[in-house]
Design goal:
The chain folds into two domains: 84 residues, 3-Layer(aba) Sandwich (Rossmann fold), CATH 3.40.50.10860; 131 residues, 3-Layer(aba) Sandwich (Rossmann fold), CATH 3.40.50.720. Helix 7 links the parallel strand 5 and strand 6. A six-stranded parallel beta sheet has the order 1-11-8-7-5-6. Strands 3-2-4 form a three-stranded parallel beta sheet, sandwiched between helices. A two-stranded antiparallel ribbon has the order 9-10. Helix content is 39%, strand content 15%. It is of the alpha/beta class and 289 residues long. It binds NADPH dihydro-nicotinamide-adenine-dinucleotide phosphate (NDP) and 5,10-Methenyltetrahydrofolate. 5,10-Methenyltetrahydrofolate (GUE) binds next to strand 4 and helix 10.
Length: 289
Protein backbone atom coordinates (compact mmCIF):
# COMPACT_ATOMS: atom_id res chain seq x y z
CA UNK A 1 0.00 0.00 0.00
CA UNK A 2 1.04 3.57 -0.63
CA UNK A 3 -0.30 6.78 0.93
CA UNK A 4 -1.52 8.28 -2.30
CA UNK A 5 -4.28 6.88 -4.44
CA UNK A 6 -3.68 5.91 -8.05
CA UNK A 7 -4.34 8.44 -10.77
CA UNK A 8 -7.73 7.72 -12.37
CA UNK A 9 -7.45 7.41 -16.12
CA UNK A 10 -10.41 9.34 -17.52
CA UNK A 11 -11.51 7.28 -20.52
CA UNK A 12 -14.75 9.18 -20.79
CA UNK A 13 -12.94 12.50 -21.27
CA UNK A 14 -10.35 11.01 -23.65
CA UNK A 15 -13.15 9.45 -25.72
CA UNK A 16 -14.96 12.80 -25.91
CA UNK A 17 -11.75 14.39 -27.20
CA UNK A 18 -11.31 11.68 -29.82
CA UNK A 19 -14.90 12.15 -30.99
CA UNK A 20 -14.38 15.94 -31.16
CA UNK A 21 -11.31 15.41 -33.39
CA UNK A 22 -13.36 13.14 -35.67
CA UNK A 23 -16.21 15.66 -35.78
CA UNK A 24 -13.70 18.34 -36.84
CA UNK A 25 -12.18 16.15 -39.58
CA UNK A 26 -15.35 14.72 -41.15
CA UNK A 27 -16.67 17.90 -42.87
CA UNK A 28 -13.37 18.20 -44.78
CA UNK A 29 -13.58 14.65 -46.19
CA UNK A 30 -16.00 15.54 -48.95
CA UNK A 31 -18.27 12.61 -48.15
CA UNK A 32 -20.17 11.36 -45.11
CA UNK A 33 -18.85 8.07 -43.67
CA UNK A 34 -21.58 5.55 -42.83
CA UNK A 35 -21.70 2.93 -40.07
CA UNK A 36 -24.15 0.00 -40.13
CA UNK A 37 -24.93 -1.82 -36.89
CA UNK A 38 -26.77 -5.15 -36.91
CA UNK A 39 -28.51 -6.30 -33.74
CA UNK A 40 -30.26 -9.66 -33.61
CA UNK A 41 -32.61 -10.27 -30.66
CA UNK A 42 -33.92 -8.23 -27.78
CA UNK A 43 -31.09 -8.30 -25.21
CA UNK A 44 -31.73 -5.06 -23.23
CA UNK A 45 -28.01 -4.37 -22.53
CA UNK A 46 -27.20 -4.65 -26.24
CA UNK A 47 -30.12 -2.38 -27.14
CA UNK A 48 -28.80 0.40 -24.88
CA UNK A 49 -25.30 -0.04 -26.25
CA UNK A 50 -26.48 0.03 -29.88
CA UNK A 51 -28.58 3.15 -29.20
CA UNK A 52 -25.51 4.91 -27.69
CA UNK A 53 -23.43 3.99 -30.72
CA UNK A 54 -26.04 5.27 -33.17
CA UNK A 55 -26.40 8.56 -31.27
CA UNK A 56 -22.64 9.18 -31.12
CA UNK A 57 -22.25 8.23 -34.79
CA UNK A 58 -24.70 10.95 -35.79
CA UNK A 59 -23.19 13.45 -33.32
CA UNK A 60 -19.77 13.30 -35.01
CA UNK A 61 -21.38 13.83 -38.41
CA UNK A 62 -21.55 10.30 -39.82
CA UNK A 63 -24.53 8.35 -41.12
CA UNK A 64 -25.93 5.59 -38.92
CA UNK A 65 -27.79 2.60 -40.34
CA UNK A 66 -29.44 0.49 -37.65
CA UNK A 67 -30.73 -2.99 -38.46
CA UNK A 68 -32.69 -4.52 -35.58
CA UNK A 69 -33.79 -8.06 -36.35
CA UNK A 70 -36.00 -10.34 -34.25
CA UNK A 71 -34.37 -13.16 -32.24
CA UNK A 72 -35.90 -15.76 -34.60
CA UNK A 73 -34.01 -14.38 -37.64
CA UNK A 74 -32.27 -17.22 -39.49
CA UNK A 75 -28.54 -17.42 -40.14
CA UNK A 76 -29.24 -17.18 -43.88
CA UNK A 77 -31.13 -13.92 -43.36
CA UNK A 78 -28.25 -12.40 -41.37
CA UNK A 79 -25.74 -13.50 -44.03
CA UNK A 80 -27.94 -11.97 -46.74
CA UNK A 81 -28.13 -8.65 -44.83
CA UNK A 82 -24.33 -8.58 -44.44
CA UNK A 83 -23.97 -9.21 -48.18
CA UNK A 84 -26.28 -6.28 -48.90
CA UNK A 85 -24.27 -4.02 -46.58
CA UNK A 86 -20.99 -5.20 -48.19
CA UNK A 87 -22.37 -4.05 -51.56
CA UNK A 88 -23.85 -0.74 -50.33
CA UNK A 89 -21.52 2.15 -51.25
CA UNK A 90 -22.97 4.36 -48.47
CA UNK A 91 -21.82 1.86 -45.84
CA UNK A 92 -18.15 2.18 -44.81
CA UNK A 93 -18.29 0.15 -41.59
CA UNK A 94 -20.27 -2.91 -40.54
CA UNK A 95 -20.65 -4.06 -36.94
CA UNK A 96 -22.64 -7.16 -36.02
CA UNK A 97 -23.36 -6.95 -32.31
CA UNK A 98 -22.20 -10.01 -30.32
CA UNK A 99 -23.28 -12.33 -28.86
CA UNK A 100 -25.61 -13.61 -31.59
CA UNK A 101 -28.46 -16.02 -30.77
CA UNK A 102 -27.23 -19.62 -30.44
CA UNK A 103 -28.73 -20.84 -33.72
CA UNK A 104 -26.49 -18.44 -35.67
CA UNK A 105 -22.81 -19.30 -36.25
CA UNK A 106 -21.02 -16.05 -35.30
CA UNK A 107 -17.75 -17.08 -36.98
CA UNK A 108 -19.57 -17.64 -40.24
CA UNK A 109 -21.18 -14.20 -40.03
CA UNK A 110 -17.87 -12.48 -39.23
CA UNK A 111 -16.19 -14.24 -42.18
CA UNK A 112 -18.85 -12.82 -44.49
CA UNK A 113 -18.11 -9.17 -43.61
CA UNK A 114 -15.92 -7.44 -46.19
CA UNK A 115 -12.55 -7.00 -44.36
CA UNK A 116 -12.41 -3.41 -45.72
CA UNK A 117 -15.64 -2.64 -43.81
CA UNK A 118 -14.81 -4.73 -40.73
CA UNK A 119 -14.63 -1.85 -38.21
CA UNK A 120 -14.65 -4.30 -35.27
CA UNK A 121 -11.43 -5.84 -36.64
CA UNK A 122 -12.77 -9.35 -35.95
CA UNK A 123 -12.34 -10.81 -39.48
CA UNK A 124 -9.39 -13.25 -39.71
CA UNK A 125 -7.88 -11.10 -42.48
CA UNK A 126 -7.64 -8.14 -40.10
CA UNK A 127 -6.47 -10.35 -37.20
CA UNK A 128 -3.76 -11.76 -39.49
CA UNK A 129 -2.72 -8.32 -40.69
CA UNK A 130 -2.41 -7.11 -37.09
CA UNK A 131 -0.35 -10.20 -36.18
CA UNK A 132 2.04 -9.69 -39.10
CA UNK A 133 2.40 -5.94 -38.61
CA UNK A 134 0.49 -4.90 -41.75
CA UNK A 135 -2.13 -2.13 -41.92
CA UNK A 136 -5.24 -3.51 -40.22
CA UNK A 137 -8.56 -2.46 -38.80
CA UNK A 138 -7.79 -3.07 -35.11
CA UNK A 139 -10.42 -4.26 -32.57
CA UNK A 140 -11.87 -1.19 -30.84
CA UNK A 141 -11.46 -2.13 -27.17
CA UNK A 142 -7.73 -2.96 -27.29
CA UNK A 143 -7.12 0.03 -29.57
CA UNK A 144 -8.78 2.26 -26.97
CA UNK A 145 -6.65 0.72 -24.20
CA UNK A 146 -3.48 1.36 -26.21
CA UNK A 147 -4.43 5.01 -26.78
CA UNK A 148 -4.93 5.52 -23.03
CA UNK A 149 -1.59 3.85 -22.25
CA UNK A 150 0.35 5.87 -24.83
CA UNK A 151 -1.30 9.08 -23.65
CA UNK A 152 -0.15 8.31 -20.10
CA UNK A 153 3.33 6.92 -20.75
CA UNK A 154 4.44 8.05 -24.19
CA UNK A 155 6.72 5.20 -25.22
CA UNK A 156 5.85 1.78 -23.76
CA UNK A 157 9.15 0.23 -24.90
CA UNK A 158 10.60 -2.33 -22.53
CA UNK A 159 7.65 -2.34 -20.14
CA UNK A 160 6.39 -5.66 -18.73
CA UNK A 161 2.77 -6.11 -19.83
CA UNK A 162 0.54 -8.86 -18.46
CA UNK A 163 -2.86 -9.43 -20.06
CA UNK A 164 -5.37 -11.62 -18.26
CA UNK A 165 -7.71 -13.08 -20.89
CA UNK A 166 -7.06 -14.46 -24.38
CA UNK A 167 -10.25 -13.80 -26.34
CA UNK A 168 -10.08 -12.87 -30.02
CA UNK A 169 -11.96 -9.68 -29.17
CA UNK A 170 -9.79 -8.29 -26.37
CA UNK A 171 -6.88 -10.35 -25.00
CA UNK A 172 -5.17 -11.52 -28.20
CA UNK A 173 -5.32 -8.24 -30.14
CA UNK A 174 -4.26 -6.36 -26.97
CA UNK A 175 -1.18 -8.59 -26.83
CA UNK A 176 -0.38 -7.88 -30.50
CA UNK A 177 -0.65 -4.12 -29.99
CA UNK A 178 1.53 -4.11 -26.87
CA UNK A 179 4.10 -6.32 -28.60
CA UNK A 180 4.14 -3.88 -31.51
CA UNK A 181 4.68 -1.09 -28.95
CA UNK A 182 7.81 -3.00 -27.74
CA UNK A 183 6.43 -4.27 -24.42
CA UNK A 184 7.45 -7.66 -23.06
CA UNK A 185 4.09 -9.42 -23.18
CA UNK A 186 2.62 -12.24 -21.10
CA UNK A 187 -0.89 -13.57 -21.79
CA UNK A 188 -2.56 -15.30 -18.84
CA UNK A 189 -5.79 -17.33 -18.92
CA UNK A 190 -7.87 -19.80 -16.94
CA UNK A 191 -5.15 -22.48 -17.06
CA UNK A 192 -2.31 -20.18 -15.98
CA UNK A 193 -0.46 -21.18 -12.80
CA UNK A 194 -0.09 -18.66 -9.95
CA UNK A 195 -1.96 -15.79 -11.55
CA UNK A 196 -1.28 -13.40 -8.62
CA UNK A 197 2.49 -13.84 -9.08
CA UNK A 198 2.21 -13.33 -12.85
CA UNK A 199 0.20 -10.15 -12.34
CA UNK A 200 2.72 -8.79 -9.81
CA UNK A 201 5.36 -8.69 -12.57
CA UNK A 202 3.34 -6.25 -14.62
CA UNK A 203 4.18 -2.60 -15.20
CA UNK A 204 1.02 -2.66 -17.32
CA UNK A 205 -1.79 -4.99 -16.21
CA UNK A 206 -4.76 -5.47 -18.53
CA UNK A 207 -7.74 -7.34 -17.06
CA UNK A 208 -10.16 -8.82 -19.63
CA UNK A 209 -11.69 -11.81 -17.87
CA UNK A 210 -15.37 -11.16 -17.23
CA UNK A 211 -15.20 -12.03 -13.50
CA UNK A 212 -16.29 -9.25 -11.14
CA UNK A 213 -13.40 -7.89 -9.02
CA UNK A 214 -11.29 -11.04 -9.45
CA UNK A 215 -7.97 -9.18 -9.47
CA UNK A 216 -7.10 -8.10 -5.93
CA UNK A 217 -4.98 -5.22 -4.68
CA UNK A 218 -2.11 -7.46 -3.56
CA UNK A 219 -1.78 -8.88 -7.11
CA UNK A 220 -0.63 -5.47 -8.31
CA UNK A 221 2.94 -4.19 -8.42
CA UNK A 222 3.18 -0.85 -6.62
CA UNK A 223 2.99 1.99 -9.15
CA UNK A 224 1.73 -0.23 -12.02
CA UNK A 225 -0.79 0.98 -14.60
CA UNK A 226 -4.01 -1.06 -14.47
CA UNK A 227 -6.41 -1.20 -17.41
CA UNK A 228 -9.73 -2.78 -16.42
CA UNK A 229 -11.66 -3.95 -19.47
CA UNK A 230 -14.26 -5.92 -17.51
CA UNK A 231 -17.89 -4.82 -17.62
CA UNK A 232 -19.86 -6.87 -15.09
CA UNK A 233 -23.35 -5.96 -13.96
CA UNK A 234 -23.90 -7.21 -10.41
CA UNK A 235 -27.39 -8.40 -9.46
CA UNK A 236 -29.54 -5.78 -7.70
CA UNK A 237 -28.69 -5.24 -4.01
CA UNK A 238 -31.18 -4.79 -1.14
CA UNK A 239 -32.06 -1.29 -2.36
CA UNK A 240 -32.84 -2.70 -5.83
CA UNK A 241 -29.88 -1.03 -7.59
CA UNK A 242 -27.61 -3.06 -9.87
CA UNK A 243 -23.99 -1.94 -9.96
CA UNK A 244 -21.43 -2.08 -12.77
CA UNK A 245 -17.97 -3.35 -11.73
CA UNK A 246 -14.80 -4.29 -13.54
CA UNK A 247 -12.56 -7.35 -13.28
CA UNK A 248 -10.33 -5.50 -10.76
CA UNK A 249 -11.20 -4.84 -7.09
CA UNK A 250 -10.97 -1.08 -7.62
CA UNK A 251 -10.93 0.14 -3.99
CA UNK A 252 -7.99 -2.16 -3.15
CA UNK A 253 -6.19 -1.63 -6.43
CA UNK A 254 -6.20 2.16 -6.30
CA UNK A 255 -4.17 2.10 -3.08
CA UNK A 256 -1.36 0.19 -4.85
CA UNK A 257 -1.45 1.10 -8.55
CA UNK A 258 0.09 4.22 -10.09
CA UNK A 259 -2.82 4.72 -12.47
CA UNK A 260 -6.08 2.83 -13.08
CA UNK A 261 -9.14 2.97 -15.32
CA UNK A 262 -12.49 3.11 -13.49
CA UNK A 263 -15.61 1.13 -14.45
CA UNK A 264 -17.72 2.77 -15.73
CA UNK A 265 -15.95 5.73 -17.37
CA UNK A 266 -12.73 3.97 -18.37
CA UNK A 267 -12.34 1.59 -21.27
CA UNK A 268 -16.04 1.37 -22.23
CA UNK A 269 -16.41 4.88 -23.73
CA UNK A 270 -13.11 4.38 -25.59
CA UNK A 271 -14.54 1.33 -27.35
CA UNK A 272 -17.31 3.36 -28.98
CA UNK A 273 -15.00 6.28 -29.85
CA UNK A 274 -12.56 3.84 -31.50
CA UNK A 275 -15.42 2.32 -33.46
CA UNK A 276 -16.11 5.76 -34.94
CA UNK A 277 -12.37 6.26 -35.49
CA UNK A 278 -12.16 2.91 -37.34
CA UNK A 279 -15.17 3.85 -39.47
CA UNK A 280 -13.43 7.04 -40.61
CA UNK A 281 -10.22 5.07 -41.28
CA UNK A 282 -12.14 2.46 -43.30
CA UNK A 283 -14.05 5.14 -45.20
CA UNK A 284 -10.86 6.97 -46.20
CA UNK A 285 -9.11 3.76 -47.26
CA UNK A 286 -12.07 2.51 -49.31
CA UNK A 287 -12.59 5.85 -51.00
CA UNK A 288 -8.89 6.41 -51.60
CA UNK A 289 -8.58 9.59 -49.48
N1 LIG B 1 -15.08 -2.23 -22.08
C1 LIG B 1 -15.47 -2.73 -23.23
O1 LIG B 1 -15.67 -2.00 -24.17
C2 LIG B 1 -15.59 -4.20 -23.40
C3 LIG B 1 -15.65 -4.96 -22.28
N2 LIG B 1 -15.69 -6.32 -22.37
C4 LIG B 1 -15.68 -7.04 -21.10
O2 LIG B 1 -14.38 -7.60 -20.91
C5 LIG B 1 -14.46 -8.85 -20.26
C6 LIG B 1 -13.79 -9.92 -21.12
O3 LIG B 1 -14.47 -10.01 -22.34
P1 LIG B 1 -14.09 -11.13 -23.44
O4 LIG B 1 -12.64 -11.07 -23.73
O5 LIG B 1 -15.06 -10.99 -24.53
O6 LIG B 1 -14.42 -12.46 -22.58
P2 LIG B 1 -14.25 -14.02 -22.88
O7 LIG B 1 -15.19 -14.70 -21.99
O8 LIG B 1 -14.29 -14.26 -24.35
O9 LIG B 1 -12.75 -14.32 -22.41
C7 LIG B 1 -12.42 -14.31 -21.06
C8 LIG B 1 -10.97 -14.73 -20.88
O10 LIG B 1 -10.69 -14.75 -19.47
C9 LIG B 1 -10.08 -15.96 -19.13
N3 LIG B 1 -10.46 -16.37 -17.78
C10 LIG B 1 -11.68 -16.76 -17.32
N4 LIG B 1 -11.63 -17.08 -16.04
C11 LIG B 1 -10.35 -16.92 -15.64
C12 LIG B 1 -9.66 -17.11 -14.43
N5 LIG B 1 -10.29 -17.55 -13.32
N6 LIG B 1 -8.35 -16.85 -14.38
C13 LIG B 1 -7.70 -16.43 -15.48
N7 LIG B 1 -8.29 -16.21 -16.67
C14 LIG B 1 -9.61 -16.46 -16.74
C15 LIG B 1 -10.56 -16.97 -20.13
O11 LIG B 1 -9.60 -18.01 -20.20
P3 LIG B 1 -9.76 -19.29 -21.17
O12 LIG B 1 -9.42 -18.80 -22.53
O13 LIG B 1 -8.75 -20.24 -20.62
O14 LIG B 1 -11.18 -19.75 -21.02
C16 LIG B 1 -10.66 -16.13 -21.40
O15 LIG B 1 -9.45 -16.12 -22.10
C17 LIG B 1 -15.95 -9.05 -19.98
O16 LIG B 1 -16.24 -8.53 -18.69
C18 LIG B 1 -16.62 -8.20 -21.03
O17 LIG B 1 -17.91 -7.76 -20.64
C19 LIG B 1 -15.65 -6.95 -23.59
C20 LIG B 1 -15.61 -6.22 -24.76
C21 LIG B 1 -15.63 -4.78 -24.75
N1 LIG C 1 -19.53 -6.67 -32.40
C1 LIG C 1 -19.35 -6.21 -31.16
N2 LIG C 1 -18.41 -5.26 -30.93
C2 LIG C 1 -18.22 -4.78 -29.66
O1 LIG C 1 -17.34 -3.91 -29.45
C3 LIG C 1 -19.03 -5.29 -28.59
C4 LIG C 1 -19.99 -6.27 -28.89
N3 LIG C 1 -20.13 -6.71 -30.18
N4 LIG C 1 -20.77 -6.78 -27.93
C5 LIG C 1 -20.70 -6.30 -26.54
C6 LIG C 1 -19.33 -5.76 -26.19
C7 LIG C 1 -19.33 -4.85 -24.98
N5 LIG C 1 -18.98 -3.54 -25.47
C8 LIG C 1 -19.06 -2.36 -24.74
C9 LIG C 1 -18.85 -1.13 -25.31
C10 LIG C 1 -19.00 0.04 -24.61
C11 LIG C 1 -19.37 0.03 -23.30
C12 LIG C 1 -19.55 1.32 -22.58
O2 LIG C 1 -19.72 2.37 -23.17
N6 LIG C 1 -19.56 1.34 -21.24
C13 LIG C 1 -19.74 2.54 -20.45
C14 LIG C 1 -21.11 2.60 -19.76
C15 LIG C 1 -21.76 1.28 -19.52
C16 LIG C 1 -23.11 1.34 -18.80
O3 LIG C 1 -23.34 2.28 -18.03
O4 LIG C 1 -23.89 0.40 -19.02
C17 LIG C 1 -18.62 2.64 -19.42
O5 LIG C 1 -17.93 1.63 -19.18
O6 LIG C 1 -18.42 3.71 -18.90
C18 LIG C 1 -19.56 -1.18 -22.69
C19 LIG C 1 -19.40 -2.37 -23.40
C20 LIG C 1 -18.74 -3.63 -26.81
N7 LIG C 1 -18.89 -4.86 -27.28
Amino acid sequence: MTDTLARRIDGKAFAAGLRARLAAEIPSLGFQPGLAVVLVGEDPASQVYVRNKAQQTVEVGMRSFEHKLPAETTEAEVLALVATLNADPAVDGILVQLPLPKHIDADKVLLTIDPAKDVDGFHPVNAGRLATGANALVPCTPLGCLMLLQDLHGSLAGMEAVIVGRSNIVGKPMAQLLLKADCTVTIAHSRSRDLPALCRRADILVAAVGRPEMIRGDWIKPGATVIDVGINRLPPDASGKSRLVGDVAFAEAETVAGAITPVPGGVGPMTIACLLHNTVTAAKARRGV
